[in-house]
Amino acid sequence: MIVVSSTHQKGLTKMPPDAAYDPFERGRFPVGVRTIEALDSDRNRLFNCEIWYPATVEHAGQDLAFETQDAFSVPIRNEQRRQAAVRNAAAERGNYPLVVFSHASAFHRRGAQHFFAPISPATVMS
Questions:
Q1: Residue 87 is inside which H or E element, if any?
Q2: What would the pLDDT profile of 42-98 be if each residue is shown by its tens digit?
């Protein structure tokens, strides 16, 4: 995993140095998610990339509500699952940290949603 952090994070609140950071505590932004196809030019193939990001306030609570959460099918198992994010939600404007995660070849790209749900709405990353 690679974490790239911007020095200027518009709209993010600074925590006092003595405040305890809990990575599992929900932050102030709802979570948006979208899937893009990227080209691997060395292998001449497209692959899916899942992008998680802070969504606008109009999506507040939609990432937690069953009716508006993103639903997807698990390959091979043919079962529906949900993730704590809103598909193609409007993105909150500003500069935010970038986290790049590459899963193992036998792993599914949505298998790490337990990691991205807590950090995508977080207000502080270290």
A1: strand 86-87
A2: 999 998 888 889 999 999 999 999 999 998 887 777 788 888 899 999 999 999 888
**Confidence label for 5 from pLDDT (cuts 50, 70 and 90):** very low
Q: Which residues contact 3 (CB under 8 A, 6 or more apart)?
A: 97, 98, 99, 100, 125
Range of the domain at 77: 2-8+26-119
Does any domain span residue 19?
no
Count how many domains the chain has. 1
As a whole number of angstroms, the distance between CA 75 and CA 111 comes to 12
**The pair of three-digit structure tokens given for residue 75, joined into one six-digit string:** 């390959």
The candidate with the shortest Cα–Cα distance to 54, out of 101, 123, 103, is 123
pLDDT at 121: 47
Query: DSSP character for 59?
Result: G
The candidate with the shortest Cα–Cα distance to 121, out of 52, 23, 27, is 27
CA-closest candidate to residue 74, choices 113, 36, 43, 38: 113
